[in-house]
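Fold this complex.
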Amino acid sequence: MQRFRFNGLLLAAVLLIPVLPAQAQEMDHSMHMHHGHDMSAGDSLAWRMAPMDGMTMPMMPEMMDDVPDTGAFLPGFGMDVSMLPEARPSEIIDMANGDTLRMDASMVRRTINGREYVMMAYGGMYPGPLIRADRGAKVVVEFTNNIEMPTTVHWHGLRLDNAFDGIPGLTQDPVETGETFTYELKFPDTGMYWYHPHMREDVQQDLGLYGNMLVDPTEEDYYAPVNREVPLILDDLLVDANGLFPYGEEAPTHALMGRFGNVMMVNGITDYSLDIEAGEVVRFYLTNVANTRTFNVNFGGARIKVIADDVSKLEREQFVSSVIIAPAERYIVDVYFDDEGTYEITNAVQAIDHFRGTFVPETHQLGTISASGSASADHADAFAEARTNEDTIADIDGFRRYFDKAPDHNLRLTIETKDLHPMTMRMMEVDTLYFPPIEWNEGMPMMNWLSTGDEAKWTLLDEDTGKKSMEINWQWEVGDVVKIRVFNDPASFHPMNHPFHVHGQRFVVTHIDGVPNRNMGWKDTVIIPVGSTIDILVDVTNPGKWMAHCHIAEHLHAGMMLGFEVRDPSMPNAGR
Amino acid sequence: MRFLLPRIGFLLILALAVMALPARDVDSAASEADTTCAEGVSPDYYEIELVTTRKVSGARLAKGVGEVTYVQSPFGISLSEDGSYLVNIDVSMSNVKLADGKQLVAWVTTPQLDEISSLGALDENLQVSGQTDFNKFLLVITLEPAGEEPGTMWTGPVVSRGMSRSGLMHTMAGHGPFETEPCAVYGY
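Structure:
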């Protein structure tokens, strides 16, 4: 009898599958017209149904009236957008040693896909000004907070003095509205870096508070010659018919998977384009500033060569078919556009349809590159050579004897849940046979939206001590070489990839799932796929109190961070 | 509109079935999973267990495993241009006594068998390594004439077979509540 009942249900479910797309669409429309949400909210701050662009699961009736356990929040709500200054495209600020830049964060008007939004900007620009300096330079940024929230600025990837790392409660007090904080930056490593808030990144960074720092080499022939250099900042933004989709007021929403956007942007715009001459080799500096999305970037079939990652050149340049870049990572790539024509920059991934249990090809248009005429300088031969970077190899050589040492710390990435919506719990329990190494899309937007850090507590578990997240306070000394083994537990509740970021130091990835990494570069952020074990070797050089954390903004706020302290034996009181 | 009500009916049936499952809070940090990672060993999560068909003489008690790791790339993981995972598969078999003139060949194929690719013949240690960019796939070991290069499709009988972890991802309707899949075997 029981067998008959289940078979009947199975039959019903199987019959249901073919009508799901239409069903989901009808439900999406109908949900905007009834139930507990204010579906005609316009600019009101009442919660409305989360956008369902990635919706593959049928909406459960039990969930239709639910909203996150936090208030809806939009910075600048009620402001007359026409009274705000229109943000302008990013500008390059060349800074010499000792220079000072005065920069603020402010509310601005942005026009995206023909619609005006109240957003935020550093220096009134989107992205913020590109700070360019030579390696070894020291500069000052006098930062003023003109947004309506407290904030700080974190200078991501820089090995700077601890006092200027921008961590509220650890290295500085929050910069309240109207206040100024002076940051002293130094640039010991060549490469591309970026700056962003370290308070409510899920809101402030998402609304436009990010910018690059390009540190130029002081050596001749550090990189191969190219025709031009172009920064590309990748981002996404979540909007619906009523405008920007609200954020959580007391805590971020989307705690399970992070806030995926449904509008893709390059350098803050949706129609990025670049005109070049055919035969050019273009050096792109890629930065992923999205809250949670990992990108797989193609350049319309043009050949790609990876030159460098976060903090240094790779040991060996390498040709690749696409660039995989997780939140907060940077990659420097040379791309050769040999023929005239149009090259589409795309994000090509295999999304997951949770209900059907299938992979679904998904391609997002990110921008267009038009090549015409003929390049004045021919760098094709230099491009064709994949250089071996002896300087990087020599820099890493001093650490190779530590590659196979036992881990100093064993860290497990996991999650604890409490009081999640019962339907979310049940649906997750029947969908736990497979989790992708990386979550390329948001296949369960409703469940994701409803979760906050109160219900989903992302956890860094120190396997050696049993301490969790900010209970952890590792003690290191300058000169230490510390091996951390990070394991992303696939048995946890909805495991997910995590871009793991270490502040103030640099590291190399020595092993991926026990396999030695044969082409290293120095990094500050590394993606930890589901089920994988990544060994990183930290070069401890910078004293002070620091953090390491997942760079998915919602996971950070849901607890996925730890502390460590670096003591300088030659300065007994330093960092205390 | 006239089709909407029946659809909602089906949906409600499905919803009720799912709601019937007991809810529980999870403290996965307390799980007992082994976290040590031996050098050069693929993650257990993606490991493919090869199950004998018991139909081939000398291999009825065969055991085997396909270890899955990412193809090396500067990005930690490796993808094709369309976003499919690029993985190494290291196959090893044991408990096999091959007849003279025979060899084992490893294959990967989509679940629909519409695409098949050879990983190569297993060596004298019953091992072979290859790569694939299939997202959901079966790993198949067949018995073939010795010394012949694998063609586009196996000709001999299937000795063992296994499924990629992604192959376990199937329709929600086929999951536990309907008792049509051996989910408990996989820890669910």
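Residues 1-40, 176-180, 182-188 of chain B have pLDDT under 50 and may be disordered.
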